[in-house]
Amino acid sequence: MDNQKVLQDVTKEIELASSQEELQIVKVTYLGKKGRITELLKSLKDLSLDEKKSKGAEINLLREKVQALFEVKLKDLKILDINSKLNTEFLDITFPPPEVSAAKVHPISKTFDDVVSIFGSMGYAIAEGPDIETDFFNFSALNIPEDHPAREMQDTFYIADKDEKGKPLVLRTHTSPVQIRTMLNQKPPIKIIAPGRTYRCDSDSTHSPMFHQVEGLFINENANMGDLKGTLIEFCKQFFEVQDLKVRFRPSYFPFTEPSAEMDIAYEIIDNKLQIGKGDKWLEILGCGMVNPVVLENCKLDTSKFQGFAFGMGLDRITMLKHGLTDIRSFFNGNLNWLAKHGFSLGEY
Ligand code: DAH
Q1: What is the rounded CA–CA span in Å between residue 219 and residue 190?
Q2: pTM reported for the whole predicted model
Q3: Cα(215) to centroid(ligand 1), Å
Q4: Cβ of 204: how many Cβ atoms within 10 Å?
């Protein structure tokens, strides 16, 4: 009655096993290559055919019973394991998270926020326009006719799709088309800024094919060049956080403004570091002027009643100046180490 003895023994040992590892050892002892049941099966080879048949069937039955016993016990042990884990492991949700991968705000995003908040405090609303523009909004309504050299100045990206007049669409080369869209949609007084992406076919350390500008537009009955200067100087003082900021306005030319000017900020380099607002070197940061009456007429505004000023500023440029960054491309290559160093934590707002 070997089989009976084996069954008794294995049942007892299975009962005693208190972990999955212990159970596995028992299993090997009985069902492994040299296990007791396996040996019983091997011993059949010396028996006669009839005996083989009857004994073989008995041993197979034994093996199936034993396997079933192991399965039931394994299930029990797994449940025990889960329960003990549930009792001992828990998550303390009041524990502060590690600071290793705190998210950072991109310097351009920070500039966007600063620009919106400074002009917002002066009463400017935000306006928007599409990145893909028609020839009308990007050029002709802004008094930049076909064949005008300004079109070449702006290294335009043309798109194969055409507008309803059959002219190729463009990636907007500046934020100025938002001026036109706003004047066609709103009645004066108009006081908006339009920050956004702009595109030109140009790339080096100070030019990127995609860059950012903010457009400003103020239209009422008597806005003048003095208001324009005051607004821009006040913006720069707040943005660069320099109170006695040295700036200058130079006469310039833009088809959509008359007169036109460019604004420069003074700087000097002390101990290899850029100091903004003083010194005898100049950096151009924006174009501006009184909105050309031709543009007002293109937008169906009564030029005997309304006038105003506009400006367009490079946001990447002022961000680089403020933070002493020298390569515009570093803004856009998605390097997380760079962002960890030059980005802003939310606490800095
Ligand atoms: N759109 C011009 C550019 O991208 C910048 C500019 C100049 C905008 C004068 C203006 C402006 O609104 O009045 O170079």
Answers
A1: 5
A2: 0.72
A3: 7
A4: 9
Q: Does the CB atom of residue 288 touch ligand 1 within 6 A?
A: yes
Model confidence pLDDT, tens digit, residues 92-144: 888 886 666 678 999 999 999 999 999 999 999 999 999 999 999 999 999 99
Neighbouring residues of 46: CB distance < 8 A, sequence distance ≥ 6: none
Tens digit of each residue's pLDDT (9 = 90 or more) over 67-95: 999 999 999 999 999 999 998 888 888 88
DSSP per-residue string spanning 232-284: HHHHHHHHHT-SS--EEEEEEEETTEEEEEEEEEEEEEETTEEEES-SSEEEE
Specify the length of the chain in residues. Answer: 349
- 3-class secondary-structure state, position 324: coil
Tokens describing residue 30: 């009985």
Region 235-256: mean pLDDT is 96
Report the nearest-CA residue for atom 8 of ligand 1.
312
Give 227's strand partners. Answer: none
Instruction: Give the chain's largest Cα–Cα span.
Output: 123
Sheet holding 158-162, edge to edge: 132-133, 168-171, 158-162
Dist. CA 254–CA 309, nearest whole Å:
13
Assign 307 to helix, strand or coil: strand
Omega before residue 259 within 30° of 0, cis? yes
Ligand 1 centroid, distance to 181 Cα (angstroms): 15
Q: What is the distance in A from the centroid of ligand 1 to the CA of 141?
A: 14
What is the number of the ligand 1 atom nearest to the C-alpha of 312? 8
Cβ atoms within 10 Å, residue 91: 6
- How far is C-alpha 209 from the chain's CA centre? 18
Strand-pair category, 125-126 with 190-199: parallel
**Structural tokens at position 21:** 């590892």
Residue 287 near ligand 1, beta carbon < 6 Å: yes
> What CA–CA distances, in Å, run from 140 to 125, 165, 179?
25, 13, 13
CA-to-CA distance for 277 and 300, rounded, in angstroms? 40
